[in-house]
TrEMBL record:
This is Carbohydrate ABC transporter permease. PANTHER family: ABC TRANSPORTER PERMEASE PROTEIN MG189-RELATED-RELATED, POLYGALACTURONAN_RHAMNOGALACTURONAN TRANSPORT SYSTEM PERMEASE PROTEIN YTCP. One of its GO terms (biological process) is transmembrane transport. Keywords: Cell membrane, Membrane, Transmembrane, Transmembrane helix, Transport. It is found in: Cell membrane. The chain crosses the membrane at residues 12-32, 80-100, 112-132, 138-157, 256-276. One of its GO terms (cellular component) is plasma membrane. The keyword Cytoplasm does not apply. The keyword Aminoacyl-tRNA synthetase does not apply. It is a multi-pass membrane protein. SUPFAM superfamilies: MetI-like (SSF161098). Its main location: membrane. Residues 76-274 form the ABC transmembrane type-1 domain.
Length: 291
């Protein structure tokens, strides 16, 4: 029999819905503002103050400036390569590391875990890392972007906890049937951890897609620049200055270019994220609860 909600319960649930709706609007509006502003007329946008709910006029001038840049398409391709290669390396090493650290019979489990966690709070710094990358011959190559951050300590811990939540009896049964560690990992552990792996792929892919600082430090060949770094250069190139009429027109266009740049760099992630959303909560919860 379904329990009837009391008036207090109904009021509480209504307040929760209202609060969550307001929080949703607060999170959604900044992106809506950026998209609407990117389609607005530059002069109308500069004159307007306050909330933007629809395009002010209509103009694709900002997108024209961004797309006509000859470095956009190559940088898109570079970013896709960096995301695919980097995420593949991240997942491969994270899975192997998490499996080893989640096994009860592994003697070095505790000291290695402490050593890995130590790196989450302390690092050598920018200059030593740069000298190391250059000394290893990775400077101005794709490997300078994907190898230094090959494993995220946080993601490794989440994956390790997820593996530990799988019943040990499954592993014991497999070993009785003659299965080795590779069979257990790929036939038992990974199929039961699909949700967690989907979340890890999302985290790593978004991190690679959004990364620009490492590329600015480690790359000098512009043909290898990722999208985010090219977007940054477009924003800098369209920064206006001075007091001439030409500079005033450039100032109007600059605002539109900023918004258009954000949209161009964000749209691919916005299309991919909803498909991974269904795995997000289940994956995080599975990786945060230990049996």
């Amino acid at each position: 029999m379904k329990k009837q909600k009391s008036p207090g319960d109904r009021i509480f649930i209504s307040m929760v819905y209202v609060l969550m709706g307001l929080m949703g609007l607060i999170c959604l509006y900044p992106m809506w503002h950026v998209v609407m502003a990117s389609f607005s007329d530059p002069i109308e946008l500069m004159r307007h103050t306050g909330v933007i709910l629809k395009p002010l006029g209509f103009s694709l001038e900002g997108y024209r400036v961004v797309i006509e840049n000859p470095n956009i398409l190559p940088s898109y391709f570079n970013t896709i390569v960096y995301v695919l290669v980097g995420t593949a390396i991240n997942m491969f090493l994270t899975i192997l590391g998490a499996y080893a650290l989640s096994r009860k019979g592994f003697m070095l489990k505790r000291p290695l875990t402490l050593l890995i966690v130590f790196t989450m709070y302390f690092n050598a710094g920018l200059i030593p890392n740069f000298l190391l990358v250059k000394g290893l011959g990775l400077y101005n190559t794709i490997w300078a972007l994907v190898l230094p951050g090959a494993i995220s300590t946080w993601n490794l811990i989440v994956m390790k906890t997820s593996f530990q939540s799988i019943p040990v009896s499954l592993e014991e049964s497999a070993r009785l049937d003659g299965a080795n560690d590779f069979v257990i990992l790929f036939k038992i552990i990974l199929p039961l951890s699909k949700a967690t792996m989907a979340v890890m792929v999302l985290f790593y892919a978004v991190a690679h897609w959004s990364s620009w600082f490492n590329a600015m430090i480690y790359l000098r060949d512009k043909s290898k620049f990722p999208l985010q770094l090219v977007m940054r250069e477009i924003l800098i190139a369209n920064s206006s200055g001075g007091n001439s009429m030409m500079d005033t027109d450039a100032m109007f266009l600059e605002e539109i270019v900023k918004y258009s740049t954000i949209v161009v760099a964000t749209v691919p992630i916005l299309f991919i994220y909803p498909f991974a959303q269904k795995y997000f909560m289940s994956g995080v919860m599975m990786g945060s609860v230990k049996e």
